[in-house]
Automatic annotation (TrEMBL):
<dbReference type="Pfam" id="PF00171">
    <property type="entry name" value="Aldedh"/>
</dbReference>
<dbReference type="InterPro" id="IPR015590">
    <property type="entry name" value="Aldehyde_DH_dom"/>
</dbReference>
<feature type="domain" description="Aldehyde dehydrogenase">
    <location>
        <begin position="19"/>
        <end position="468"/>
    </location>
</feature>
<dbReference type="GO" id="GO:0016620">
    <property type="term" value="F:oxidoreductase activity, acting on the aldehyde or oxo group of donors, NAD or NADP as acceptor"/>
</dbReference>
<feature type="active site">
    <location>
        <position position="250"/>
    </location>
</feature>
<keyword id="KW-0560">Oxidoreductase</keyword>
<dbReference type="GO" id="GO:0006081">
    <property type="term" value="P:aldehyde metabolic process"/>
</dbReference>
<dbReference type="InterPro" id="IPR016161">
    <property type="entry name" value="Ald_DH/histidinol_DH"/>
</dbReference>
<feature type="active site">
    <location>
        <position position="284"/>
    </location>
</feature>
<feature type="region of interest" description="Disordered">
    <location>
        <begin position="1"/>
        <end position="31"/>
    </location>
</feature>
<dbReference type="InterPro" id="IPR012394">
    <property type="entry name" value="Aldehyde_DH_NAD(P)"/>
</dbReference>
<protein>
    <recommendedName>
        <fullName>Aldehyde dehydrogenase</fullName>
    </recommendedName>
</protein>
<dbReference type="InterPro" id="IPR016162">
    <property type="entry name" value="Ald_DH_N"/>
</dbReference>
<dbReference type="InterPro" id="IPR029510">
    <property type="entry name" value="Ald_DH_CS_GLU"/>
</dbReference>
<feature type="compositionally biased region" description="Low complexity">
    <location>
        <begin position="10"/>
        <end position="24"/>
    </location>
</feature>
<dbReference type="InterPro" id="IPR016163">
    <property type="entry name" value="Ald_DH_C"/>
</dbReference>
<comment type="similarity">
    <text>Belongs to the aldehyde dehydrogenase family.</text>
</comment>
Length: 504
């Protein structure tokens, strides 16, 4: 018996015989893309055990050995970009060029992780300090062992690879549970690794629904990296808490873009529309809210309206963006539009009629009450809320008035960096949107309901390693307080020393 990803919720409670496989579906056409096993807890544990066995040799390779293998995988990915891009299109519905852009980022991040792991994680000396001057002090970052990666469907290669590439470069094995909507992309990534690095089976797949993800959390993995909704993130944390398994939680956002009075309005409007509508708005760091200073609001709204009004969703290659990948999200998007309009907002582009499943046409809303769900909840659709504010300071205050804190953007000629630093977010772009995701050296992650922990950059490598601090005795200290044989004057002399060097 086969379940499809999209009817899983209904079928799981109604069906008596348990399914063993499920289908992934092209959201543009409803056609079946592929069939995949539903892995139960026993199978998940077996795969984690196999990954754990393989990890030992992977860790022993050291940084340069692993780099050679990860570089081989990167070259294979580069050669086969269009195969994987085609599969991403089929499982998410996004336009081919958007899938290619996702893979361009994957390749660059994989390069960075492999090239920089040694510099960031290798053993290094630190000052041993005044009290332990007889010790050599070092710290190094050692792999956890097996990392469980639970991925989303909106960027089914780029987002999980932000954990997978960095975890592998740090010397871990990875067991990957892709979203039930994009299992084929997960399978492709694992197969391509196996082809490029056949001697080290350290990247494994498990497929299925939420239960498979839950089984991965409980399987004895040494760390879990999760990307998805805040609600599921909390469930993942609760499950990991049972065994004190550390977690990285990358959830959604309600990112704001601030337009100051001196901003380049054409550039700001272009970025706002692209940030909000590309990938049909299904981007955790997508622009969902804009706060524009009153003095330039009319002109900015004109520019946004003109640009957004020209965009067309569809399944054909010329479409600006594709369908809503997860059917249930359509109700969320519709609910946010309805709530805003019912409570007095104005639609400058689109409206209720824009929701035509599986597609949603662009919607630009303004004058939306700040407690409307269109302002407070993640919409994850091609909609944007543009609000007028008195000045940039009010814009910062309103942008920060959110339980989320993932990314953000500021358009301003004079005050860009100053305003950006005041945003309570993990990432921010000045005079662009989303750029930080394309800089592999920059950590990626949020605060508040957007989660915690970091992928990408040096922090993203350290996230998948345990620091091990070490001291090595170089010579015997004349004043040794850590022995029962210490003299009476030892502590007195140390007290005098600490007062002289640290007491002033
Ligand atoms: P979920 O958070 O439910 O799913 C994310 C991943 O977690 C999937 O692989 C999912 O598997 C898995 N999962 C589900 N339940 C569990 C569990 N109990 N234990 C472990 N893993 C589990 O997100 P949805 O796909 O349902 O999307 C819901 C909302 O989340 C969206 O509307 C959007 O607002 C937000 N979202 C944010 C993303 C981001 O990039 N930050 C990405 C995707 C969604 P399965 O798919 O098989 O259920």
């Amino acid at each position: 018996m086969t379940r499809t990803a999209r009817d899983s919720v209904e079928v799981s409670s109604a069906s008596s015989a348990p399914s063993t496989t499920f289908e992934s579906i092209d959201p543009r056409t409803g056609e079946v893309v592929g069939e995949h096993p539903i892995h139960d807890a026993a199978e998940v544990s077996a795969r984690v055990a196999a990954a754990r066995e393989a990890q030992v040799a992977w860790a022993e390779l050291g940084f340069s050995g692993r780099k050679q293998h990860l570089d081989a995988w990167r070259r294979l990915l580069s050669k086969r970009v269009d195969d994987l891009a085609g599969l991403i299109c089929a499982e998410t519905g996004k336009p081919l060029d958007d899938a290619r852009l996702e893979l361009i980022l994957v390749i660059d991040h994989l390069h960075w992780a492999a090239a920089n792991a040694e510099k960031v994680l290798k053993r290094r000396k630190v000052p041993s300090g005044v009290l332990m001057a007889n010790q050599t002090a070092t710290v190094e970052y050692l792999p956890f062992g097996v990392v469980g990666v639970i991925g989303p469907w909106n960027y089914p290669a780029f987002t999980p690879m932000g954990s997978i590439a960095y975890a592998l470069a740090a010397g871990n094995a990875v067991v990957f549970k892709p979203s039930e909507l994009t299992p084929g992309v997960g399978q492709w990534l694992v197969d391509s690794f196996a082809e490029a690095v056949p001697e080290h089976p350290v990247f494994r797949l498990v497929t299925g629904f939420g239960e498979t993800g839950a089984a991965l959390c409980a399987s004895g993995v040494d760390k879990v990296a999760f990307t998805g909704s805040t609600a599921t993130g909390k469930r993942v944390m609760a499950s990991c808490a049972q065994n004190l398994v550390p977690v990285l939680v990358e959830c959604g956002g309600k990112d704001a873009l601030i337009v100051d009075a001196d901003a380049d309005l054409a550039a700001a409007a272009d970025a706002a529309v692209w940030g909000a509508m590309s990938n049909a708005g299904q981007t955790c760091i997508g622009v969902e809210r804009v706060y524009v200073v009153d003095a330039v609001a009319d002109r900015f709204l004109e520019l946004v309206t003109e640009r957004a009004g020209k965009l067309r969703p569809g399944g054909e290659p010329s479409a600006h963006f594709g369908p809503i990948t997860m059917p249930s999200q359509v109700d969320v998007i519709r609910g946010h539009i309805d709530d805003a309009l019912r409570r007095g907002a104005r639609a400058l582009v689109g409206g209720k009629h824009s929701v035509r499943p599986p597609f949603v046409e662009p919607v630009v809303l303004t004058d939306v009450p700040e407690d409307s769900t269109a302002v407070t909840e993640e919409t994850f659709g091609p909609t944007i809320v543009v609000q007028r504010v008195r000045d940039a300071d009010e814009a910062v205050a309103r942008a920060n008035d959110s339980r989320y804190g993932l990314g953000g953007a500021v358009f301003s000629r004079a005050r860009g960096v100053e305003l950006a630093r005041r945003l309570r977010t993990g990432m921010v772009s000045v005079n662009s949107v989303i750029s930080f995701a394309g800089v592999p050296a920059l950590p990626f992650g949020g605060v508040g309901d957007s989660g915690f922990g970091r992928i990408h950059g040096p922090d993203g490598l350290r996230e998948f390693a345990r620091p091990q601090s070490m001291t090595r005795t170089r010579y015997r200290m004349p004043l040794n307080p850590m022995t029962f044989g210490r003299s009476k004057g030892t502590i007195r002399r140390l007290m005098r020393l600490i007062r002289v060097v640290r007491g002033r």
